[in-house]
Amino acid sequence: MSDATFRVMLRMQIKPGMEADFERVWKEVGGSVTSDPANRGQWLSRSTTADEDGVYYIISDWVDEPQFRRFETSDTHLSHRTKLHPYRSGGSMATMDIVASLSGAAA
């Protein structure tokens, strides 16, 4: 297995008052992402920045970009997105290749 990792970071603005439901549904449908053989893991984070109320970041790691793009256009992903869409009021996506990694003392 290659050590290369393709990372996807989604920034999602959630409609006010819907944060708890969004988190619950994200956990319920997350297996549709992590069960893909090319997925290395997925994380949901809530922003603590004062001007980012209701903002979440979803990070998912993939074996490579072509396999992520295959998943991105799959029926499985479309179904996943459809279940989360009612909670969103906006968002963006950034993609990147991890070029280096350092473990911290607490690891």
UniProtKB/TrEMBL annotation:
Protein name according to UniProt: GrhU
Entries under InterPro entries matching the protein: ABM_dom, Dimeric_a/b-barrel
Pfam family, one: ABM
Lineage top rank: taxon: Bacteria
SUPFAM superfamilies: Dimeric alpha+beta barrel
Domain ABM: 6-96
